[in-house]
Amino acid sequence: MATQPEDPKKALGWAARDSSGLLSPFNFFRRETGEKDVALKILYCGICHSDVHMMKNEWGVSTYPLVPGHEIVGIVTKVGSKVEKFKVGDKVGVGYMIDSCRSCQNCTENLESYCPQFIPTCGAENYRDGTTYGGYSDSIVVDEHFVIHIPDGLPLEAAAPLLCAGITVYSPLRYFGLDKPGLRIGVVGLGGLGHMAVKFAKAFGANVTVISTSPNKEKEAIEHLGADSFFISHDKDKMKAARGTLDGIIDTVSADHSVSPLIGLLKSHGKLVMVGVPIKPVEIHVSHLLLGRKMVAGSNIGGMKETQEMIDFAAKHDVKPSIEVIPMDYVNIAVERLLKADVKYRFVIDIGNTLKPSSQLYTSLKRMKETNEKDVAFKILYCGICHSDLHLMKNEWGMSNYPLVPGYEIVGIVTKVGSKVEKFKVGDKVGVGYIIDSCRSCQNCTENLESYCPQHIPTCGAKYRDGITYGGYSDSIVVDEHFIVHIPDGLPLEVVAPLLCAGITVYSPLRYFGLDKPGLHIGVAGLGGLGHMAVKFAKAFGANVTVISTSPNKEKEAIEHLGADSFLISQDQAKMQAAMGTLDGIIDTVSADHPLLPLIGLLKSHGKLVMVGALMKPMELHVFPLLLGRKMIVGSFIGGMKETQDMIDFAAKHNVKPTIEVIPMDYVNIAMERLLKADVKYRFVIDIGNTLKPSS
């Protein structure tokens, strides 16, 4: 929780709450403007790869909530009584640090960035009895010593990345004497840092060679950035031909890579300066250094004096980063793109125009309607997490609308009913699944198969009634009574939630395709959220159940805990061969790409392979094995409302309950990461009622 300083000033930013790194709006406080302080309204903030390391705690030093951002520019709004260098209205910037001891040798030599006690702009604990919050926010208060003037003629959005990426490469070029005209300078990596190294080295008059693993960057490096030559680092012939040709190299790469070939490119007395931060140690052959008196050095950002000099130099020589300006609510997508190197070359957030107060955010997310005559309103107590939530959040199906509130395994208590509601009353325990409306008139709807209505409305992410549907990761919902199910007494609400998607997804095809008869031999492919429910329902129907999996370590769980009768490893060809023609039907719950031919082989004649996992790529189907056995491969979606109520009642009667892990709301991003790794048995359920707190 944000520490409230003395005489606080309210601030709004976006913060990561945990190591998932996902950002969301966050209200906190800035300190009052002290006598040597400068307060500024933030207009732009660059996104640095270091922000991602901090958001995800990849360096092991992050504290949450964490407001990232250390490439900050804006306008001075207030100055302290003893401030000498700035006035209200000045264009200013703040970089990676906001304080230091001011007394050590590094500080007295204008090298504050090397002070053992320097304070980073974001994520530092116990600074003035609080935590430092960075520039993904609307304001900041900083001692004037750590504020930079932005010269006229330098656009503010372009100035932002100079305060980290710019000074990170400018400083070593200056310090190590690599700023002389005519020197031959190498730049390793062509990203946010690398493209700035090329631009500054060219401005110093150097002959610049870019060294990269990506051949498709050659044209960009030479034609657009002005590099003189380009090497592919794994082209051994060209790298060998270039040995001993460079006076210095700025290595901007943070990924693991070999430095020996780079040392080989240096002339005698050459300098390899590391400014990227590989997570793992690099391997260096000392003999390569000894023979040429070569140097491998590291370099951090520059001190405040040098940073001001860098900004002034950039303005004078028109050195500007290549940027993509984005709105605040695009930041999580930008981070994903940054991890894929899908940006040229720096994202800059337009804070001033796009960071909105949380009250405006709330207004945009409000429920789209009051409780109408056929509606039921209820307080949400629990909501399950389905893998489909992830697909929608990441727009992997290409149909998501943002902002998106996921969740369609929703249970709670009725708080209000419309005047014509017949089936529910206040206080009832109820649930909502994947759909909240349909046309009500097509053949599917009249046959109680609303889920197959071409106009069905999903519970989250759909355009509906002049708005967007918002799902169950929320405190309340309003739904037409037709799309609500009763929760029977004796069935705990938290275990009901996954039944409303995972449960009905496997129950429906077992019923529809006649695989619900006692004594049938049923296969279940995959043992996750869907698969474990398929085992439980099939056993409740009296089937003999075989689990088919790629994971041998799931056998004990399948048989001893879930009650399966047998277990097949899908890549054990001998056992799969022995089991051919033994199953009446298979429920295939796997969403990852996998071969279908071995599963078809397990079916008896007239057997049915029912697909309920949503594969992203088209599957390869061999028709001949279907012909010979009159076998069937079919797809199945969730059931209609009548069948969903039947499923819930059946589950209560036969004690069919999912295996779940109940989590608090603020754990949801970590839960998503675990879900991607299949690190859950077998369904996460969010305790909405007890853990979803107001933003304040």
Protein architecture, described:
- The structure is a single chain.
- This protein is an alpha/beta fold.
- The chain has 4 domains: 9-159 and 320-353, Quinone Oxidoreductase, Chain A, domain 1 (Alpha-Beta Complex); 177-298, Rossmann fold (3-Layer(aba) Sandwich), CATH 3.40.50.720; 368-433 and 470-494 and 657-691, Quinone Oxidoreductase, Chain A, domain 1, CATH 3.90.180; 514-635, NAD(P)-binding Rossmann-like Domain (Rossmann fold, 3-Layer(aba) Sandwich), CATH 3.40.50.
- The strands form 8 sheets. Strands 3, 4, 5, 8, 9, 16 and 17 form a 7-stranded mixed sheet that branches.
- Strand 14 (266-274), helix 8 and strand 15 form a beta-alpha-beta unit.
- The longest helix has 20 residues, at 156-175.
- The protein is globular, with a radius of gyration of 30 Å.
- Residues 1-7 and 359-368 have low confidence and may be disordered.
Question: What amount of the residues lies in strands?
Answer: 25-35%
User: Cα distance, first to last residue?
Assistant: 10 Å
- Please, what is the average pLDDT? 92
Q: Major β-sheet, in short?
A: 7 strands, mixed
- How many domain regions? 4
CATH architecture of the largest domain: Alpha-Beta Complex
CATH superfamily placement of the largest domain: Medium-chain alcohol dehydrogenases, catalytic domain
Mind telling me the CATH class of the largest domain?
Answer: Alpha Beta
Instruction: Round the Cα radius of gyration to an integer and report it.
Output: 30 Å
Which regions are unreliable across 5 or more consecutive residues at pLDDT < 50?
Answer: 1-7, 359-368
Helix residue percentage: 25-40%
How many distinct beta strands? 34
